[in-house]
C-alpha cells in the first residue's frame, strides 16, 4: 500500500476513534456514531488498498 494513503487512512481511523470516545464521554450519540462511521470507512479503504497491492505483485 502506498505509504501516504496508509498514513492518511490510519489518521482517519484515529480521528474516528477520538470522536467515538469523546461522544461516549459526553453522552453525544451522534458524535459517537460519526466516529464509528469514520473508522469503518477508513478500514474499508485500507482493505481495498491491500487488495490492490496484492494484485499488483
Structural account:
By secondary structure, the chain is mainly α. The protein is built from two helices and no strands. The longest helix is centred in the last third of the chain and has 28 residues, at 29-56. The mean pLDDT is 89.
Question: What's the short version?
Answer:
This protein has 57 residues and is an all-alpha fold. The protein has helices at residues 3-26, 29-56. Helix 1 packs antiparallel against helix 2 (29-56).
Secondary structure tally, helices: 2
**Rg for CA atoms:** 13 Å
Low-confidence stretches: none
Q: Topology as H/E string?
A: HH
The total of beta strands comes to 0
Largest sheet, in brief, is:
none
Alpha-carbon distance between the termini?
Answer: 11 Å
* Oligomeric organization of the protein chains: single chain
What is the overall shape? elongated
Q: Determine the structural class based on helices, strands and strand pairing.
A: mainly alpha
Report the average pLDDT across residues: 89
Helix amount, in percent?
over 70%
Q: How much of the residues is beta strand, in percent?
A: under 5%
Topology:
Elements: H1 3-26, H2 29-56
Helix pairs in contact: 1-2
Descriptive labels:
single chain, 57 residues, elongated
Amino acid at each position: 500500500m502506498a505509504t501516504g494513503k496508509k498514513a492518511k487512512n490510519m489518521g482517519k481511523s484515529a480521528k474516528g476513534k477520538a470522536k467515538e470516545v469523546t461522544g461516549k464521554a459526553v453522552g453525544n450519540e451522534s458524535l459517537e456514531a460519526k466516529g464509528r462511521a469514520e473508522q469503518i470507512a477508513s478500514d474499508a479503504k485500507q482493505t481495498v488498498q491491500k487488495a490492490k497491492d496484492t494484485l499488483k505483485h
